[in-house]
From TrEMBL:
Bilayer-spanning residue ranges: 6-26, 38-56, 68-89, 110-131, 143-164, 176-198, 218-241
Membrane topology note: Multi-pass membrane protein
Organism of origin: Prauserella muralis
Protein localization: Cell membrane
Protein name, entry field: Cytochrome c oxidase assembly protein
Predominant subcellular localization, coarse grouping: membrane
Domain of life: Bacteria
Alphabetic keyword roster: Cell membrane, Membrane, Transmembrane, Transmembrane helix
InterPro entries per the UniProt record, alphabetical: Caa3_assmbl_CtaG-rel
Record-level GO cellular component terms: plasma membrane
Length: 257
């Protein structure tokens, strides 16, 4: 087992424990924090641990693709739905640490990192590089390359999901058009990549036809399901936000009269 996988598993366990302790502390002081967010974070962290520590079913490339779906798509969606940045800001007392986190979250570099097209390029673009160049073959024989790719897939998946959903507080929030269009384009690029894999394996690899077809179908249909969940999250968030804004506008004339 690669060291990067142990690091990811240990970090996920520590993050889950920290999240649950923070949520418990918030409730004990009388603040509201929905328990479904605890469930989301626990599920996301557990999915990461299972993906990197437990042997996955299927032939080698199918097992790799299952790990890819969990690490890059399913776990990031669950973690982002739990709103960890919001929880951290609410738990931290006023002081240097809270100010530093707010400064980082509201900085210009952070705003550009969550610019949806850039986040999609870092995520889907590198997947094309991984599977349509000899990079995937290199990960099988070079531990450092494997570690770098594994870490990037997880971080890029988190960044893309965060950029599209935008549930946590940011100074610059990209509008629905940017996020929805990026999600559609990224979904199309992911599906096309899966179709190319169905026809041709990654360069310099020896993958059986059955293994290749199963992995490509898993990537195609599994990616679609996660992207539908992302689209539903974006739609619900937009509906809720615009509904609240409409309610405030209706109340203002009544209060003035």
């Amino acid at each position: 087992m690669a060291a990067i996988e142990l690091v990811i598993a240990a970090t996920a366990c520590a993050a889950v424990l920290g999240y649950l302790l923070a949520a418990t502390r918030l409730r004990r002081r009388g603040d509201m924090w929905p328990r479904r967010r605890d469930v989301f974070f626990l599920a996301g962290g557990s999915a990461l641990v299972c993906a990197v520590l437990i042997p996955l079913p299927g032939e080698p490339f199918t097992g790799h693709m299952t790990q890819h779906l969990i690490t890059a798509m399913i776990a990031p969606l669950l973690l982002v739905l739990s709103r960890p940045l919001t929880l951290t800001l609410r738990v931290l007392p006023p002081g240097r640490a809270r100010r530093a986190l707010l400064t980082m979250a509201h900085s210009r570099p952070a705003a550009w990192l969550v610019f949806p097209p850039l986040a999609a390029l870092l995520d889907i673009g590198v997947l094309w590089l991984l599977y349509r160049t000899p990079l995937y073959a290199a990960t099988q024989h070079q531990p450092l390359v494997h570690a770098a790719v594994h870490a990037h897939v997880l971080i890029a998946g988190l960044l893309f999901t965060f950029a599209v959903c935008q549930l946590d507080p940011l100074r610059h929030r990209w509008n629905l058009a940017w996020r929805a269009t990026t999600l559609l384009a990224a979904g199309a690029a992911h599906a096309i990549l899966a179709k190319t894999l169905y026809a041709t394996p990654p360069p310099a690899t020896a993958v059986t036809t059955d293994d290749l077809h199963t992995a490509a179908q898993l990537m195609y249909y599994g990616g679609d399901l996660v992207e539908i969940a992302l689209a539903a999250t974006v739609a619900i968030t937009w509906y809720t936000t615009t509904g609240r804004a409409h309610t405030r506008r209706r109340r203002q004339p009544a209060a003035a009269s």
